Amino acid sequence: MQQENKVYLSLLYDFYKDFLTERQKKIIELYVNEDLTLGEISKELGISRQGVFDAFRKAEMVLKKYEAKLKLADRYYKNISLIDEVLQKLRRIYDRYKDEEIMSIINSIQEWQENV
After folding, report:
1. Is the Cα dihedral 41, 47, 48, 51 positive or negative?
2. Left (φ > 0), alpha (ψ -120 to 50) or beta: where does 20 sit?
3. CATH number for the segment(s) 3-70
4. How many other CB atoms are there within 10 angstroms of residue 114's CB atom?
5. CA–CA distance, 39 with 114 (Å, rounded to integer)
6. Residues 13, 63: contact at Cβ < 8 Å?
7. Which among 34, 52, 55 is positioned nearest to 43, based on CA atoms?
8. Pfam families this protein is in (predicted)?
9. pLDDT digits (tens, 9 = 90+) for 32-57
């Protein structure tokens, strides 16, 4: 799985992990957060590689099913993109007018982004 797909899977996991079984959660966590291969996860959990693969695929399907219905990750990406556009525009305005109130707004938005 490409790194970009792992990031997306991680985001889906953050939104929808409560819909997974404990085993599925553990497998996704080891795969995404610990960057283990399916073979390494198999050894870690003491189950066959095929068992890990099947559980991983089912978990991935569950996460994607909920995303298809609820669109939380999609909204998240759109919101991040919109916020970045607003910040770029505010920075251009600040560069033109050097208004400290605008810089304060920029800083507030950036601080909020870091805490989301």
Report:
1. negative
2. beta
3. 1.10.10.10
4. 7
5. 35
6. yes
7. 52
8. UPF0122 (PF04297)
9. 999 999 999 999 999 999 999 999 99
